Each structure stands twice: as C-alpha cells, then as structure tokens.
Amino acid sequence: MADFLGVPDTGALLFFGLSFASFATAFIGVFTGTAGGLILLALMAMVMPPAALVPVHTVVQLGAGVTRTMIMWRWVMRATLIPFIVGAAIGAGLGAKAFVSMPTSATMGILGIFILIVTWLPKLGRMGAQSSRFAAVGFVATFVGVFVSATGTLVAPFVASAAPDRRNHAATLGALMSFVHILKMAAFAMIGFAITAYIPLMAAMIVTGAAGNWLGEVALNRTSEQRFRLILQVGLTVLALKLLYDAVVQAGWLHAIGL
After folding, report:
1. I want to staple 131 with a disulfide (CB 3.0 to 4.6 A). Which of 13, 83, 88, 236 is the partner?
2. Where are the domains of the chain?
3. What b-and-e string marks burial along 35-52, b requiring 16 or more CB atoms within 10 Å of the CB?
4. Do residues 235 and 32 lie in contact, with contact meaning Cβ atoms separated by under 8 Å?
5. How would residue 13 be classed by pLDDT, with cut points 50, 70 and 90?
6. How buried is residue 146: exposed, middle or buried, by Cβ count under 10 Å (0-12/13-18/19+)?
7. What is the pLDDT, as a whole number, of residue 148?
8. CA-to-CA distance for 230 and 250, rounded, in angstroms?
9. Taken in order 98, 193, 178, 237, is the CA torsion positive or negative?
10. Which residue in 91, 228, 219 sits closest to 155, CA to CA?
11. pLDDT tens by residue, 217-241
12. How crowded is residue 246: how many other Cβ atoms within 10 Å of its Cβ?
C-alpha cells in the first residue's frame, strides 16, 4: 500500500475514507448528543496500527471538540468549565497510579451500570451543587480514561441533566471533552508517542470533522427538544449496554458458561 501524503500504510482510498468517517461521526456526535467519538474509534481500530490509534484519535477528537465549541460557543454552559477542568486535571494526575489495581472489566461494568442509572434517573445527575458535580465528573472522566474509552459517554448524562436546551448539551459536551483530550495529549507527549507522520491525515480529519459539526448544528436546530432527548437517552443506553457486554467478555464469563 502506497503511503498517501507520507502517512504510513495509508493509501488514498483509506485516507479519504477516514476523512469521511470523521465528518459523519462529528455529525452524529452533535445530532445525537453522544457516540460520535466511540464510533470513530471503532472504525479507526479496523485499519490503524494499535500504537498510533489512540494518539491519532485523541488529536482528531480534540479538533472536533474545539471546532464544535467555536461553532456553538454561545450555547456553552460556561459555569461548568472551571470546576470540570480542575477535577479533570487532578484525575489525570492520579488515575494511572491509583486505578491500576482494578481490572478493566470491572471498570467497564461499573461505568455501564452508572451511566444507565444517571440516564434513566436524571434527577440523580442534578444532585448537589453544579460546580461540585462537574468537578467530580471531570475527575472521574480522566481518572478512568486511561483504561476505558468511554469518557464522553460518562460525561454526557450529567451534561444532559444540567442542560436546559439540546444545543447547550452539544456545545458544553464538546467543550468539556476538549479539555479531556488536551490532558490525554499531554500524557502521550510525556511517554514519547511520535505521530508526526500522521499530521496530513489528522489535519484532513479535523477539517472534515468541523464540517460535520457545522452540519450537525444545522440538523440539531431543526429537530425538536423531545426528539433529541429520546435519541440521546436511547444512544446512551445502547452504549452503556455495550460497556456491560464488553465487561462480561473481558472477564471471561461467557467462556466460563460455554458461550
């Protein structure tokens, strides 16, 4: 396979395919309120080497989050930002040290159950002062983010509980996840990941992701609040059930019962 624009093991067809995937999943992320990043990660995992997958995905998602925030800035719930950033910074510093003893399967199972509870009992997502709540969410999001690529799914139900409007949800989630991705990028830099060869691909995916964000906002403005909330609730439920299924598989329970 020829290296299109110098990107390792990436032909022109794959290059443009991943660029379109970034566009489509950015649109999905805005319109549904969740899932875009996880879908893109799953698609990239099919064609990219594991060593480059998460760093490249993180850069692309940072670009998507920043462009979404810029496009929808007037809808961002600014009061959530500082508490979330403080919590996220602490979580990033402590996560790898304190969380290493818990199996990934247990982490995924706990997150899946937690997301289901907050999604279907939204009053729980509004308990306590908003600043304290988002500081805690920021902490947990980066604390477990080293092990489980479901941090957006974890943050989304809390944003949904606090957001009076679907556009507040989409804009604020994009802003908060941008900070998570910045912290992840800092971690990758500290441990020496080199992804400069992927710059042309990342740039193309960020540009197409920005276009997806713009079109997603257009579609979001045209849908009803009730429809958006239903789509978000169903989407979060599916993702939480996927986490629970993955937890069962990783724990070996299906193999233990002969499935």
Report:
1. 83
2. 4-256
3. bbbbbbbebbeeebeeeb
4. yes
5. very high
6. middle
7. 63
8. 30
9. negative
10. 91
11. 999 999 999 999 999 999 989 988 9
12. 17
